[in-house]
Amino acid sequence: MTDFESVRTALSEARRVLIFTGAGISTGSGIPDFRGPQGVWKRRKPVTIDAFLTSEEARYEYWDYKLEGYQAFQQARPNAAHRALVTLQDQDRLAGLVTQNVDGLHSLAGITDENLIEIHGTNRKIRCLTCQRETEPPAAFAHFQETGKAPVCDECGGWLKPATISFGQRLVDEDLERGFEWAKECDFAVSLGSTLSVYPAASVPSMAAGHGKPYLIINQGETDQDHLATFRLEGDLVDLVPRLL
User: Fold this and answer.
1) Torsion angle of alpha carbons 212, 18, 98, 23, nearest 10°?
2) CB neighbours of 182 closer than 8 A, spacing ≥ 6?
């Protein structure tokens, strides 16, 4: 582990900071973790996009899982760690923020669209897989609760699902390219609350490290990129991030 004051000093001198966040930053807002020791994927099997498109049983499992977390997502609000990151933006020191999270909390905290990439999409919209039309979530969840069937698009009849990237579904190329540009231009990279095990998303901060930029990882538990870190802190992000910034 790294001395906290050494990290704070180094970060205070950075002028263009790349932030990468995972589920660990949002657990303090009541959003469940996915890959941690008590994570969602320990008890629920992820539904792939191919299974969703071809199996009614898989579509039920997918919507049932989404319904389980729907109320938590609706009620969640940014915590102190989310809010602290906005200070980098206010100081014009934020190269960009890439999040794996689909909860929309960085946006609610005040990170602008131009500074934010939600690389795995968002639960705050419903998208048709055929015509790409986006709608608000309540009607789709109400349909599933009432019928036990996956909802379909009113416009084209295509399958509806939250506007997130499912397993087996391609990331948006433009988002990934923009993240890589931020990784090249930043002078300091920070990963918060991610196991850094899901690619290609996790290749954004590792690219910054590969270009010789100082790299800070804060997480509760080991990550797949600890060997790349210049600085490594273990602890609660809601406590540590505001103190760092």
Assistant:
1) 90
2) 18, 95, 96, 98, 204
The pLDDT tens digits of the residues spanning 192-202 come to 999 999 999 99
Q: Dihedral sign, CA of 66, 71, 77, 81?
A: negative
pLDDT in tens, 118-160: 999 999 899 999 999 999 999 999 999 999 999 999 999 999 9
User: Given 1.10.287.950, 3.10.20.280, 3.40.50.1220, 3.20.20.70, which CATH number is that of 1-31+77-120+170-245?
Assistant: 3.40.50.1220
Q: Is 22 helix (H, G, I), strand (E, B) or coil?
A: coil
Q: How many Å apart are CA 117 and CA 119, to the nearest integer?
A: 5
| pTM listed for this prediction | 0.89
**Active-site pick, 120, 143, 211, 227:** 120
Q: Residue 102 corresponds to which tokens in the numbers above?
A: 């689909």
Q: Does 120 qualify as catalytic in the annotation?
A: yes
